[in-house]
């Protein structure tokens, strides 16, 4: 059973929130009493998620946001503060995967797209979240890296490069903002049952049985397990945790 939190009166901002880990985390924040902004580029899925959450009595806001566009990020964060009056938590989750490819054959446009969303997008989100949080003198940010931010794998240089970069952003900003009352950490998910991973299975880019066997725990993770890690990092229970890249990977990186 997961711990329960009372985030009543507080405000969370989640990117890539229309499905997968983002939706699970936004839902967990809302169930804990927080007002939540959900952002995504999939407007149909976003509206469906928000409609369901409002029907359950949750206080939520939907904002279309491509994190690769800094102006859209700035507008989404500003809309959150205008709607709810503050910003307490942010989970910078939006990201994409790319097919495995020999590093010598990686198209420049693929590298730019992967890093533009997975690294620059996190940078842009954190930048504009911090601009509001530093005025409050409080706040917690969790960035989504990956086991790919801790290890390398053949064929995934661009993706792993971006996810390593997220950890560098997290650690440096954490040191800068800890004295100002703002904690910044990252989670590093393993292979998680999400639409992105399902698409990799369907395309043949990832083998389901091998993916499960690669996890010492013997199974894939769930989006809800990632949400539980994010909420813990945003809770008073982790009040002395600053600048970590927390593996949530079933033991993959412990080997």
End-to-end Cα distance: 27 Å
Count of discrete alpha- or pi-helical segments spanning 4 or more residues: 9
CATH class descriptor: Alpha Beta
Strand content: 15-25%
Rounded average pLDDT: 96
Determine the CATH superfamily.
NAD(P)-binding Rossmann-like Domain
Radius of gyration: 17 Å
Largest sheet: 7 strands, parallel
Helix/strand structural class: alpha/beta
- The fold-level CATH name is Rossmann fold
Helical content (DSSP H or I, runs of 4+) = 40-55%
Number-wise, the strands total: 9
The total number of structural domains is 1
Net shape: globular
Protein name: SDR family oxidoreductase
Domain Ketoreductase: 10-190
Keywords: NAD, Oxidoreductase
GO molecular function, one term: oxidoreductase activity
Description:
Belongs to the short-chain dehydrogenases/reductases (SDR) family. It comes from Nocardia coubleae. It is a single chain. The protein is an alpha/beta fold and 255 residues long. The protein has one domain: NAD(P)-binding Rossmann-like Domain (Rossmann fold). The chain has 9 helices and 9 strands. It has helices at 20-31, 43-55, 70-84, 108-118, 120-136, 157-177, 195-203, 208-213, 223-234; strands at 11-14, 35-40, 60-64, 89-92, 139-144, 182-189, 192-193, 221-222, 245-248. The strands form 2 sheets. Strands 3-2-1-4-5-6-9 form a 7-stranded parallel sheet, with helices on both faces. It has a two-stranded parallel ribbon with strand order 7-8. Helix 2 (43-55) links the parallel strand 2 (35-40) and strand 3. Helix 1 crosses helix 9 (223-234) and helix 4 (108-118) runs parallel beside helix 6 (157-177). The longest helix is centred in the middle third of the chain and has 21 residues, at 157-177. The radius of gyration is 17 Å and the shape is globular.
């Amino acid at each position: 059973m997961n711990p329960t939190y009372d985030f009543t009166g507080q405000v969370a901002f989640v990117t890539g929130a229309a499905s997968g880990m983002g939706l699970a985390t936004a839902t967990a924040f809302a169930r804990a009493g927080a007002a939540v902004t959900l952002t995504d580029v999939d407007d149909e899925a976003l509206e469906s998620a928000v409609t369901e959450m409002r029907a359950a009595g949750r206080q939520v806001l939907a904002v279309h946001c491509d994190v690769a566009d800094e102006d859209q990020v700035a507008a989404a964060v500003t809309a959150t503060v205008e709607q709810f009056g503050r910003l307490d938590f942010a989970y910078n989750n939006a990201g994409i995967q790319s097919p495995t490819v020999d590093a010598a054959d990686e198209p420049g446009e693929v590298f730019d797209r992967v890093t533009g969303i997975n690294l620059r997008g996190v940078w842009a989100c954190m930048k504009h979240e911090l601009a509001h949080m530093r005025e409050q003198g409080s706040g917690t940010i969790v960035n989504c890296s990956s086991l790919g931010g801790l290890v390398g794998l053949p064929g995934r240089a661009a993706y792993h490069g971006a996810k390593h970069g997220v950890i560098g952003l997290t650690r440096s900003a954490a040191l800068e903002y800890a004295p100002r009352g703002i904690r910044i950490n990252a989670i590093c998910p393993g292979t998680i049952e999400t639409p992105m991973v399902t698409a990799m299975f369907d395309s043949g880019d990832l083998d389901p049985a091998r993916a499960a066997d690669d996890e010492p725990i013997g199974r894939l993770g769930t989006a809800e397990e990632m949400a539980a890690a994010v909420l813990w990092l945003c809770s008073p229970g982790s009040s002395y945790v600053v600048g970590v890249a927390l593996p949530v990977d079933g033991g993959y990186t412990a080997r």
